[in-house]
Write a structure and sequence with these properties.
Length: 107
Amino acid sequence: MRDFLKLSLIILVLINCVSCVTTSTYGATFEPIESVTDNYSLKIYYGGPPPRFANSIDFQEGTESALYEKAMEFIALNPEYKSFKVIEIEHSYVPSYYKYQVEFLRE
């Protein structure tokens, strides 16, 4: 019985470490926040456990995040903006998503 519990624990840890996370940004667009100029929100949905660094502002402002890719696409379509800054990160378990509040910066 003790060996079974050890094996079960090892399997749970491995599943948590190597499970597949599906991130969905299809159709996701930045929605303006009416009360604040140049601030937008974007929801990024995922399947499985939360993606690594999903709640890290430094990572989300870096070049390897889905948020960064979407922000660069937005900046390309809106040349008055030159960069962006993550203001707030919200998380929801059901449905599974992260909602980012982003401020787009002008020159």
